[in-house]
Write a structure and sequence with these properties.
This protein is of the alpha+beta class. It has one domain. It is built from 1 helix and 3 strands. It has a 3-stranded antiparallel beta sheet. A hairpin with a 6-residue loop joins strand 2 and strand 3. The protein binds zinc ion. Zinc ion binds next to loops.
Length: about 80
């Protein structure tokens, strides 16, 4: 029984680290959840802040990043 619960914890840890990250916009301080996704096309992508329109990240390839606004800066 002890080994079963240890296995469950390890799986939860792995999921959290590989699929969700947190990112804070360098300009306005908005906080985003970042989910790693797989894109069908290898191309150039960018992520633009919903609050201040700053380009937060740019990349090329098929690994996508889906930014979900989690908390807005108090002064925006
Ligand atoms: Zn911003």
């Amino acid at each position: 029984m002890r080994s079963l619960s240890a296995h469950g914890l390890a799986m939860a840890d792995q999921l959290r680290q590989s699929s969700i990250d947190e990112f804070q916009c360098g300009r306005c301080g908005a906080v985003y959840d970042v989910a790693i996704t797989h894109l069908a096309l290898r191309a150039n992508y960018d992520a633009i802040c919903n609050v201040c329109q700053k380009v937060m990240n740019e990349w090329h390839g098929t690994v996508g990043r889906a930014y979900t606004l989690k908390s807005q800066p108090a002064h925006a």
